[in-house]
UniProtKB/TrEMBL annotation:
Gene3D superfamilies: Vaccinia Virus protein VP39. This is Methyltransferase domain-containing protein. InterPro entries: Methyltransf_16, SAM-dependent_MTases_sf. Pfam families: Methyltransf_16 (PF10294). It comes from the Eukaryota.
């Protein structure tokens, strides 16, 4: 079983979960090598992902089991290098459209969306493709992953998508609350030590913006998270919800059934 260390590096042994993550991003016959135009970015592979067939640039080592295991062993693998199943689940959910999305609180129409921990950008690009937002801003502290995400957005013709560096644990990097109407994140609740800073950011983004929000512009945050052993039973597995509620935020959790069970966590002021 592999896991993430406190630096966001993948550690442990290759597992079925890892293979499922790889399967989520690749159809081998459709892969072809390309090189990022950013000189310090890793060699990448681009492939269509999700029901909309969005092109996503993925570091090529991730799709090579032997290369991936070597990267895990030497500590050079990073969480932002992988398209995680939760972002694929969001893409599939958004592609269904219809009233179910409104019932789940996933109406991004005309919203200015800020994605946290975008990694390779599938979740944010899926919102831009399928959910009619006003704009989508991809953010991450991993600059190489962010450059690949920005390149993917351009190749998909998503003019509404932009990218900017952001570490939510650094308040000096936070954008003004009034810049965005919705916060999006997928598969980011894996370190309990990060829940406090994340909730502090949400207080900034939601509570500070709530006075100006009304009706369909009321600010909200949405997280899509996998339901796995650690999430359900670990000491900090569900700490995020408790920390958010203690901070005065409203948290709603909805099960998303499917081949990989997921939770939709919606947070409002």
């Amino acid at each position: 079983m592999f896991r993430l260390d406190k630096f966001g590096r993948v550690v442990g042994r290759m597992s079925r979960t890892r293979l499922e993550a790889v399967a989520a991003v690749a159809a081998a016959e459709q892969l072809h090598l390309s090189t990022s135009n950013a000189s310090n970015a890793r060699k990448s592979v681009k492939t269509p992902v999700g029901p909309a067939g969005l092109v996503v640039h993925v570091p090529s080592y991730v799709l090579d089991p032997e290369a991936f295991e070597r990267a895990v062993a030497d500590g050079t693998s990073r969480v932002g290098d992988i398209v995680w199943p939760s972002s694929v689940a969001l893409a599939e959910l958004l592609a269904t459209g219809g009233p179910r999305l409104a019932r789940l609180g996933l109406d991004f129409t005309d919203k200015r969306v800020l994605e946290l921990g975008s990694g390779l950008g599938l979740a944010g690009m899926s919102v831009a493709m399928s959910a009619a937002p006003s704009s989508v801003t991809l953010t991450d502290h991993d600059l190489e992953a962010l450059m690949l995400a920005e390149q993917s957005a351009k190749e998909n013709g998503l003019a509404k998508v932009s990218a900017r560096p952001l570490d939510w644990q650094q308040p000096e990097q936070w954008p003004a609350a009034t810049e965005f109407d919705a916060v999006l994140a997928t598969d980011v609740l894996y370190h309990g030590t990060e829940h406090g800073p994340l909730v502090a950011f949400l207080q900034h983004a939601l509570l500070a913006n709530d006075a100006g929000g009304s009706g369909d512009k009321e600010p909200f945050a949405v997280f899509i998270e996998p339901v796995h052993h650690e999430r359900v039973t670990a000491t900090d597995g569900q700490q995020f919800e408790a920390v958010a509620r203690d901070a005065g935020l409203v948290v709603e959790v909805t099960a998303l059934p499917g081949p990989r069970p997921m939770q939709l966590i919606r947070v409002t002021a």
